[in-house]
Amino acid sequence: MNRQQLIENIFQKKSFLCVGLDTDTKKIPAHLAGSDDAIFAFNKAIIDATAPFCVAYKPNLAFYEAGGLKGMAAFEKTIAYLKENHPQHFIIADAKRGDIGNTSTMYARTFFEEYNVDALTVAPYMGEDSVTPFLAYNGKWVILLALTSNKGSLDFQMTTDGNGERLFEKVMRKAQQWGNDGNMMFVVGATQGRMFEDVRKVAPSHFLLVPGVGAQGGSLQEVCKYGMTKDCGLLVNSSRGIIYASGGEDFAEAAAAKAEELQREMAAELAQL
């Protein structure tokens, strides 16, 4: 999916919601937990219920790798199901890969050839040769970690150099020499609030993947106020707040209600552009 197609989807559906498929076998409803295919059964129900209200899905690889071969089989089935039944949705593999060049090349092959997802989250802190193998794939997106929503982000990302430039700003500025706003996004946590103003000074037109709305307490309105562009420029992710809205047999309906609630808020924000 290219940039223009993504923008068209956003304005057509009046939504820039990304649903995070952080599927934990210890949290899924009890009536599914005993199934051999519990992860995929849960994901399928969540996807079918929330698809009208979102434009993207983001399975987090940690939750599938934790299940060993069964977990990875469920990930593969989830991707295949999305492609066959909801092909208009943008698929992000949240794997946070990044290593020396030949290893990154294998990671890129895994996700862009074997699984054929649209985008992959990548850790940029090993530099250019750890990122460029992912950018070699036409039509695919690299989503670089920039300013994250966790408490520990202060340990490194906010440190400054002798010129007063913070590390996250240096990373974003340098990365734009490798990719562009048609193949690269940045992760910026929703809990960063007004910091989105500073992010936009460095990357005025790139899409931002924004986790942290919902369970982590980020404000959608604040993210939009400081981070939205004329093209929207945002994919706002909610995981736990949607997929675990209910632990009962009505889990899919509850997820749909939460997704629709967010979509309505997003439609109001888009209407102001």
Describe the structure.
This protein has 273 residues and is an alpha/beta fold. It has helices at residues 3-13, 30-33, 38-50, 61-65, 68-85, 101-114, 128-135, 153-156, 167-175, 195-202, 220-227, 240-243, 251-270, and strands at 17-21, 56-59, 90-97, 119-122, 141-147, 184-188, 208-210, 234-238. An 8-stranded parallel barrel has the order 1-2-3-4-5-6-7-8, surrounded by 7 helices. Helix 7 (128-135) links the parallel strand 4 and strand 5 (141-147). The longest helix has 20 residues, at 251-270. The protein is globular. The model has no long low-confidence stretch (mean pLDDT 95).
Mean pLDDT: 95
Low-confidence stretches: none
Number of β-strand runs: 8
Read across the widest sheet, the strand sequence of neighbours is 1-2-3-4-5-6-7-8
Order of helices and strands: HEHHEHHEHEHEHHEHEHEHH
Main beta sheet, described?
A: 8 strands, parallel, barrel
Q: State the distance separating the first and last CA atoms.
A: 23 Å
Helix-strand makeup class: alpha/beta
